[in-house]
Write a structure and sequence with these properties.
The structure is a homodimer of 325-residue chains. Chain A has 325 residues and is of the alpha/beta class. Chain A has ten helices and 13 strands. Chain A is globular and about 70 Å long. The N and C termini of chain A lie far apart (49 Å).
Chain lengths: 325, 325
């Protein structure tokens, strides 16, 4: 199954309470494609984005090693790659942005190469909703699933565009604060259902609300699935965790001909696994060379920490008197 | 199995964005015992607390109807019952305390009646840690399990007392903010393990961190269990939800001769069920007359929303090459 990933390719300078890394590899498309590569064949993954001539050599080598098709990545002569610098606070849940230099990303107009205009799965990383819509309009064939991300900046600044994009999308991945901002309701359950109503009506409507250390909620048609977080003792660098989640999720889905609830639930759990690994080293370091053993081990751990047995005293018949359970 | 509940018995005036209730029944011991009564026989539940002559007649009738032994509830002649008034904000997660009149609770010295000094299970609701310790010292026989609650007020104002109490306790129920305050670490996983170290060393060490809408984390010896929250669309009145959780949890445990991990996991889920019902009406109204059917239905729903199937392509042997999962 082919997978097209559209998003940012960036250079990040990251400071945490423990360490600092200058000009590391970053960007939503980077994390998404790397995380997806554990499930999809590298050669089935196409990237669309823009970089400057300073995009790190090791990143090109990494993409090449994975077999990604980077023909959709525009390299701007004399241009500089999108640069972000941020500093995480002690609790790792909040961060200050120190620098955002859009550089070549400021004029990004995604051009999907002809050979990528009919992917099975389309992932729209967090870019302007109008650009996400533009990419959808470049599709020659309707993908099995279009999944997108967004952020506060677009919810408050480009809501009309965002609503138009969501109406063409089958799955939305969003964090809890963004969900509440977009729906304007305190209950995440209500938010999830209202967000589903914003999506394309001609397919399953899938909403995934990421809650960081509290796991994720999946809304799939009328079903709700509550996924646990992987119980990490320490977070080294949370940059890209949300994108790794999305990549693990969509990567896993590309293994399947059809979208089914049981499969999407597992995909959310694999997304959780990739996000957990992402946090354990700087930048993309932890998700560059995982083994499937490492991934499956955490999948099983998540199953173990969230499962409980049914009531042994119960039979099919429900007793209604207290004391007879 | 006998259960002794020590805590506050109160009268609450509660205002939410939707409605208001004057002088409703409240108090930690009230919610705990009512929630526990669905699993334990009423006559096995003893209450220790203090009230004034104004304690509502319908509360006495309710306790009597459940069969609770209230011989440990002191009625102070001419005294007034602990009174709390609060107002919830729009998001229902935050509230302002408008009035706290300790009244007879100010001089509360728990006196455990002789017949209750060897309960199988002892629950210490949120009162001063020195009083919790005093109750433990009144025990003639070591209970199978001593479980306690606490709050910010004691963590900051009576930490030494609290640590002495915890060292005699087998299980602690605490919310996420309190856990971080007591341990001073941002990771709840680290907090859970550090809190376990504070508990009595001669038994299972059980810590339950309540995360409200995000569910709960159970730390049981070296195991972690992540329990989902019940997906409520609307919260009517969250007062007493934490105590109802504790009551459902301990009530369920009294059905068992021994403390086992699988049982404690289910107990956490039943606690979640009782807390979810508690939020659906004012005060104790929703947990006064539940059927076991209603309780078990939500237990099964929680099992359904949190379960996912193992990877169908996997066998016992872990493949380590990507693409062969």
């Amino acid at each position: 199954m082919s997978l097209l990933v559209v998003g940012s390719l960036a250079v990040d300078t990251i400071e945490t309470p423990f360490d600092k890394r200058e000009r590391a590899l970053g960007g939503s498309a980077t994390y998404i494609s790397l995380a997806a590569s554990y499930f999809a064949h590298g050669s089935d993954i196409g990237l669309v984005g823009v970089v400057g001539e300073d995009f790190p050599e090791h990143a090109w080598k990494l993409f090449q090693g994975k077999g990604f098709d980077t023909s959709g990545v525009e390299v701007i002569k004399g241009g500089k790659t999108f640069f972000w610098a941020g500093k995480y606070h002690y609790d790792m849940n909040t961060r200050d942005t120190l620098t955002t230099d859009l550089n070549v990303f400021a004029d990004f107009k995604p051009k999907v190469p002809a050979k990528h205009t009919s992917p099975d799965y389309l992932v729209l990383g967090n870019i302007a909703p109008s650009l996400q819509l533009d990419v959808i309009n470049q599709m020659k064939k309707k993908p099995k699933l279009i999944i997108c991300d967004t952020m506060n900046f677009w919810i408050t600044g480009a809501k009309d565009d965002l609503m138009k994009t969501l109406a063409k999308v089958n799955a939305l991945v969003i964090n809890d604060g963004e969900a509440r901002l977009l729906v304007d309701h305190p209950s995440l359950v209500v938010c999830g259902h209202k967000l589903q109503e914003m999506l394309a009506p001609d397919n399953h409507r899938i909403v995934i609300i990421k809650k960081g250390e509290h796991g994720a909620l999946l809304f799939y048609d009328q079903f709700i699935f509550s996924a646990p977080a992987y119980p990490l003792e320490e977070i080294f660098d949370p940059t890209g965790a949300g994108d790794s989640f999305m990549g693990g999720l969509i990567g896993y889905l590309t293994r399947w001909e059809t979208i089914q609830y049981a499969t999407v639930k597992r995909a959310v759990v694999y997304g959780t696994v990739l996000a957990s690994y992402c946090c354990s080293k700087f930048s993309t370091e932890a998700i560059e060379n995982l083994s499937m053993d490492q991934i499956y081990r955490r999948f099983r751990e998540l199953q173990s920490i969230s499962s409980f047995e049914d009531e042994p005293f119960r039979t099919q018949k429900h007793d209604s008197a207290a004391g007879t359970m």
